[in-house]
Amino acid sequence: MPATLTALLCLGLCLSQRISTQKRMYDTPTLSVHPGPTVFSGEYVTFYCRLETATSTFFLLKEGRSSHIQNRYGNTQAEFPVGPVTTGHKGTYRCFGSYNNHAWSFPSEPVELLVADLVLRDHTAQNLLRIGLSFLVLVALAWFLAEDWLSRKRTRGRAKSFALGVQEKAENTTL
C-alpha cells in the first residue's frame, strides 16, 4: 500500500505541476494602440502586445488577412510600429503569444484601428476674412501715410510763408 500511495502522490504532484504550467501558458494578452485607435492617414501608430507571463514570440494579426502576420521577440511585451498608415491599415487587430513553437496564448481582445483620410476643406470663408482684414490694415496704413504727408506739406507751407514774411519785413526795414 505505501508504494501505491507514493506512486499516487508522485502522479498528483506531476499533474499539478503540468496543470499550473498549462494555466500560465494560456494567458490572454492585452493589445493597445498608441496614439489611439483613430488616426489620420500618414500618421504612425504602435501596437503594444503584453502578457503577464514571459513568452518568446508575439504575433500581431489583422483579421481578414491571414497572410500578414507580424512577429516580434520579447519577454512580456512587444511593440509593432506601423506607418505611415493608409486606409488599407484600418481594421481589427489581435495579438497572440507563443511560448514555444507549439503552444500559443489565447487571442487578445480585438482593437479596431480607424484611419481617416485627410479631407481638404474649403477655406473660402476663412480666406475671405483674412483678405478683408488685410484690406482694412492697408487702408489704415494708407490713411496714416496720407495724413503724415499732408501734415508735412502744411508745415512746409507755413515755414515757407513764415520765411517769406520774415524776408519781406527785413526788406521793408532796410529801405
Structure description:
The protein has 175 residues and is of the alpha+beta class. It folds into 2 domains: 26-116, Immunoglobulin-like (Sandwich), CATH 2.60.40; 121-175. 43% of the residues lie in helices and 26% in strands. It is built from 2 helices and 8 strands, in the order H-E-E-E-E-E-E-E-E-H. Strand 4 (57-62) and strand 5 (69-73) form a beta hairpin. It is rod-shaped, with a radius of gyration of 41 Å. The chain starts with a helix and ends with a helix. The model is unreliable at 4-24 (pLDDT under 50).
Short summary:
Helix content is 43%, strand content 26%. The protein is built from two helices and eight strands, in the order H-E-E-E-E-E-E-E-E-H.
Keywords, separated by commas or semicolons:
175 residues, alpha+beta, Immunoglobulin-like, three-stranded antiparallel β-sheet, 26% strand, membrane
Strand residue percentage: 25-35%
**Element order, helices and strands?**
HEEEEEEEEH
Q: Just name the CATH architecture of the largest domain.
A: Sandwich
Q: Name the poorly predicted regions.
A: 4-24
Give the beta-strand count. Answer: 8
When the domains are counted, the total is 2
For the largest sheet, list the strands in their spatial order.
2-8-7-4-5
What is CATH's topology name of the largest domain?
A: Immunoglobulin-like
Q: Write out the CATH superfamily name of the largest domain.
A: Immunoglobulins
Number of helices: 2
Using only C-alpha atoms, the radius of gyration works out to: 41 Å
Spatial separation of the terminal alpha carbons: 158 Å
Structural category is: alpha+beta
- Quote the average pLDDT: 79
**Which CATH top level class of the largest domain fits?**
Mainly Beta
Helix content: 40-55%
What summary fits the major beta sheet?
5 strands, mixed
CA-based shape: rod-shaped
Subcellular location: Cell membrane
Membrane topology: Single-pass type I membrane protein
Signal peptide: 1-16
Keywords: Cell membrane, Disulfide bond, Glycoprotein, Immunoglobulin domain, Membrane, Receptor, Repeat, Signal, Transmembrane, Transmembrane helix
